[in-house]
Amino acid sequence: MLISNVSDTARWVAMYRALESERPDALFKDAWARRLAGERGQAILDGMPRGREWGWPMVVRTAVMDEIILKEVAAGADLVVNLAAGLDMRPYRLSLPSSLRWAEADLPEILDEKTAMVAGEKPACRLERIPADLADASARRSVLARVSAGRRRALIITEGLLIYLESAQVEALAKDLAASPAAQRWLIDIASPRLIEMMRGSWGKVTAAGGAPFKFAPPEHTKFFEPFGWREFEFRSTFAEALRLHRAPGMAWFWRLMMAFAPPKGREMWSRFSGVALLERI
């Protein structure tokens, strides 16, 4: 199997960061990505159907989240909590204030591996890694309570996580975050049901075989979160951002044509096919 567990998806995504970082016109530089992805990450990328061709959404997601994180920190966030952090290296590669506290939580195996591989490297801010099974509600609440003590404005990140969860699990997570007074903003990526159906015929087969099927794609989009204490503050369409960042695929002209002639409801559907959303607590 290309993917044997959900942690392997972190190696796969790290390869996209590595490939982008090696471009002369790179949107970001992640000097550690290829090392962290390793041979396993390379094998996953090479084995994925049209793996390189369809890597642009991962690159766009990373670049857009970078922008939003920096904006939130500049606006006064004094804590960033990256849940299911995987092989993310933002505390090292972003220009962050040294006073900022950044907490990463994920399974012990992936965090231990990353810690060993970047030993001796210095993050830009105050970084803490917390091994925890975030699927365990009590462990998740313990992490949130531990890191948020004394903080007034926390940004929560769940990049690449929600898509692998059931709706009930996302609901539980949303409620736990809303119960944490420090958690003021929540940065997520979100897919539409139509996109999930398309992906299940390609990448979805590979991730499902490895025990990480694609699941979460609420028909009501970000309105799903409103009953649980969160509402949309900002949304950025993956396709629109790909055009802005010059990372759109070769068929972008065809998608733009479809959107131009689609009725208003169709344009809305395409604009929210996938994207990055910043939620605020209600």
Please describe the structure with a list of short key phrases separated by commas or semicolons.
alpha/beta; Rossmann fold; 45% helix; 7 strands; seven-stranded mixed sheet; 12 helices; 282 residues
Structure description:
This protein is of the alpha/beta class and 282 residues long. It has one domain (8-281): Rossmann fold (3-Layer(aba) Sandwich), CATH 3.40.50.150. Helix content is 45%, strand content 17%. The chain has a 7-stranded mixed beta sheet with strand order 3-2-1-4-5-7-6, sandwiched between helices. Helix 7 links the parallel strand 4 (154-158) and strand 5. The protein is globular and about 50 Å long. The model has no long low-confidence stretch (mean pLDDT 93).
State the gist of this model.
The chain is built from 12 helices and 7 strands. The chain is an alpha/beta fold.
